[in-house]
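Worked Example 4.2. Consider the chain below.
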Amino acid sequence: MAFIDVIKAKAKADKKTIILPESMDRRTFVAAEQILKEGLANLIIIGTPEEVAANSEGLDISGATVINPFTYEKTEEYVNLFVELRKSKGLTPEDARATMLKDYAYYGCLMIKNGDADGMVSGACHSTANTLRPCLQIIKTKPGTKLVSAFFLMEVPNCEFGENGTFVFADCGLNQNPNPEELAAIAVSSADSFKMLVGKEPKVAMLSHSSMGSAKHDDVTKVVEATRIAKEMAPELALDGELQLDAAIVPEIGASKAPNSKVAGHANVLVFPDLDAGNIGYKLVQRLAKAEAYGPMCQGIAKPVNDLSRGCYAEDIVGVVAITAVQAQMN
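Applying the procedure from the previous section yields the following structure tokens:
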């Protein structure tokens, strides 16, 4: 069974309520029809009747709860909650209302904070920054979280590497140039995400253009230091670096380049040294290997809110909603 089919089965077993705030995009409604048909989640779609009608024509979304934020009975309750959460920043009721009604992601986050939904998926037509800003202002981070980061769950067809072709790639969507402490935090969080979603033991490779000292550069030193810190943070974790990509996932190359490593050649969690490498890496695998790329999924937020690539397809939204529902179950 493919990874995403396992996730969908878990989502169906304990249905959660997931918000889709992008009623201005038809992909939202194409995905919603499929999610409802498969029974993956209870859906809330935020939008005016005009937005919903214009973008859902010909689609059956009758099983979703559609909320018009301009008339919904709890809107004033959410305004008051927003003001309370941001009172130290001087937020007024008027500004709170204007923000919520202009950007439905804020409205969705307030619904989650108020206990009226379990998670949200956004980003099909908004940037990652615009998706995460309301989360950080309203939902906040998990206790003890050092860093909010993003990962992609990659499912590569006909692939013997990783966990039967399933990988976590991080950070491919949020942190531009993490320092060693931040890179270590990304590695540990990504290992937790892999174990939670895939159900297998993570094997974490800290990627570089160098393997075990084969090159000298400040960029390599950063990864070496991050590896040391991550091992101190989670000594029980199978984690190693620095490793080139082939040494990380191909057994014979791992045995040659890092013979003393228990991770080399068997990695299923790939931690990229910066956002450039991560973003390029996941898109190469997605486009050239025809891989499914679910994300960027967020880790470190108190409730599951996940981003989408603006180039996503409706089927991608379906998969991310299923994953978000499973994350909500774990909460």
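The chain has a mean pLDDT of 92. The domain at 3-140+301-330 is CATH 3.40.50.10950 (Rossmann fold). Compare this with Example 4.1 before moving on.
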